[in-house]
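Chain particulars:
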Amino acid sequence: MNFIRRYSVWLHIIGWIIFIIMPFLTSPNNNFNFFRQPGFSSFLLSQLINDFMLIAVFYFNLSFLTPNLFIKKNTLAFVLYLVAIFVFILLLNKFTFETFRRPNFPRIPPQDLSGFRHRMPPPGPMFMPFPFLFRVTISFLLVILASSLLALIKERSIQKEEKQQMALEKTAAELAVLKLQISPHFLFNTLNNIRWLARQKSDMTEDSVVKLSQLLRYMIYQAKYDKVPLVQEINHLQNYVELQKMRLPENNEVKFTYGGNIEQWSIEPLLFIPFVENAFKYGLHSQKESKIEINLKVDGNTLNLFVRNPVFANNFPVNAEDSGIGIQNVEKRLALHYPDRHELNIVNIGGYFSIDLTLILDDVEPKK
């Protein structure tokens, strides 16, 4: 389709050149003597007049009749236009035939016409031989058929592009909504953590504010892009983990590790934070020991994120809907941004809740 669009002008020119010269190439007298005959110039002039008229009909049907009448189901007006144009084409061909092609019959005195009636050409409204009339009709029908098909293909292509554009806009809107849903939820929990530190009059309150400013800077200035460097996303996770660790009691432990060729890739922003946030929200206990494990690794073009946290009976929601919109939003974003290129396994067994996410980064352009 791109090739046809790029060279459409040349394709039209070549097509019309073939259309114009075809009658000369297929003529039964297509030798050099045919082009030297005295009536060849008249034949050429009449043929060019009719051909250029058909070309005009082609583009008139392509740009007006089919798009504005046939496609819009105004069939009666479309047919009436075609009948009127066909009659005009026949009249034009009659004119060119009688002016340039009609054979010159000998002049006969009026008193002798009765004896020569049988020698005159048969009368007719168009006064054209049947083969010539048949060729004009076929040429007209082919021009109308070709232009109508081209107009239909063009209209279908436009509709397809519009649907694709609408789908892209819908996807972009959905992703924007999902990001807006994640950001306030994340900010709400973080402010609660800082409020807790402030109430404890902790010396870490100032450091937590600095960490929060870094998180907000990332969310405001970086997360607006479709893709961000994976290193920045990891730094964002690390800032969040450090901010959460400021209020952890001694019986809680958080282990965050990452490795691999993380410098080469970009990724959808704020994609991993709901998993980590969920682990802190439901994987910590004020009295019991708990350990949260977060591991991110890139091997070649495959990214794996593993998050594991303990499950406490009074700390984890019974229904998935009660766990917030974070994980559900990530699942939607993965389906939109990484279709058929991700695998997400969520397991709640043996007293531990784990998330194992694998992304294939083939279609993501490496960061140079």
Notes: The chain has two domains: 2-163, 202-360. Residues 202-360 form a domain with the Heat Shock Protein 90 fold (CATH 3.30.565.10).
